[in-house]
Design brief:
With 198 residues, this protein is an all-alpha fold. The protein is built from nine helices and no strands.
Length: 198
């Protein structure tokens, strides 16, 4: 799930890597701590020194994924060579491509995501808050250069972010091939941008 360079000498990293492989092949629910320990060539007791539960391993995986995605989105937000409208489009397409790629590489991801949403909602809320903060920067920039005419940035950011759920939630990623998703996303963006200009 993570695109950051990995230090496989670090036991925590090795455990997360092994769990990610197991979750991908067999699903989160069918994976046990003993199996992860065996894949790491360590005892289950040793594994518990680093993570209290399978959920803790999953939460670390999710956090790494969220950080990777946020870094990609931040690069888009900081592109001064693009207008706010262009940054908004690139933001949505980056979000979509990242999520679609994760789901393609991790076919059992929905089971994992369901568990994280139910058991660690605060982690998901922090991820949402991070995405909204970056999106808000684009909308503020659009207002500043008269591309947009937004009266309430906070409410508009929340509404725009909510309208993008289909392009960022793993649940929907099996519906279309990426090219079709990109076409749909661009059509939605036309409506959003027109609304921001009114």
């Amino acid at each position: 799930m993570s695109t950051n360079p990995k230090n496989l000498d670090d036991p925590r990293t090795r455990i997360i890597e092994a769990a990610e492989t197991r979750f991908s092949q067999f699903g989160y629910n069918k994976t046990t701590m003993n199996e992860i320990a065996n894949d790491c060539q360590m005892s289950a007791a040793n594994l518990y020194r680093y993570f209290e539960s399978k959920l803790d391993i999953g939460a670390s995986m999710a956090q790494n994924c969220f950080v990777d995605k946020e870094q990609l989105l931040e690069q888009v937000v900081n592109r001064t060579d693009l207008s706010a409208t262009e940054r908004l489009e690139e933001f949505v397409l980056t979000l979509l491509r990242y999520t679609h790629g994760q789901c393609h590489d991790q076919p059992m991801i929905n089971e994992f995501v369901d568990n994280i949403i139910k058991e660690r909602p605060a982690l998901v809320q922090r991820k949402i808050a991070g995405e909204r903060a970056l999106l808000e920067q684009i909308l503020i920039a659009g207002n500043a250069n008269d591309e947009f005419d937004i009266q309430n940035i906070a409410i508009t950011t929340e509404a725009v972010h909510t309208s993008l759920v289909k392009f960022s939630a793993p649940f929907f990623m099996g519906m279309y091939p990426l090219e079709e998703f990109e076409r749909i996303a661009k059509n939605v963006l036309v409506l959003i941008v027109n609304g921001l200009k009114s």
